[in-house]
Structure prediction request, 136 residues.
Amino acid sequence: MKWLWLGALLAGCETIEAGKYAPDPGHPPGSTIDTGDLEGADEAIDCDEYADFNWVNFGNAFFIEACNGCHHSDAPYRYGAPEDIHFDNVDEVWAQKGFVMMVAAGDNPTMPPNGGTTDLDRLKLEVWLTCGTVGN
Prediction:
């Protein structure tokens, strides 16, 4: 019985090639990445109810940990991340905040594709992108 269970388990596994675990999800055909505006952002975020999150006390560490393995301009292996999407500094993040909000926060985040962030960090990201400013 033990061998039957092990065989069934192995039959359901795929071989994963090194460097292929985070493929680029792509962009819809004909789409442009308008990344600076957050129209339609979660209106449930009441900025007065949350602590102040900024680049120094939250954003920089979040992007180093969750994003820059693939999305830093000097990343040696981008694992399919588009060459024009990188987050080296707060200005680059802020210029693409709508895109970041869409793929890394909210109800159905797709980035990072291998998980690794918490719901609390995603909420902090959403609060920062909704309530913060580029300079902090």
Observations:
- The longest helix spans residues 119-131.
- Residues 44 and 86 are 29 Å apart (CA to CA).
- Residues 21-131 form one domain.
- The helical segments are 2-11, 55-66, 68-71, 90-95, 97-104, 119-131.
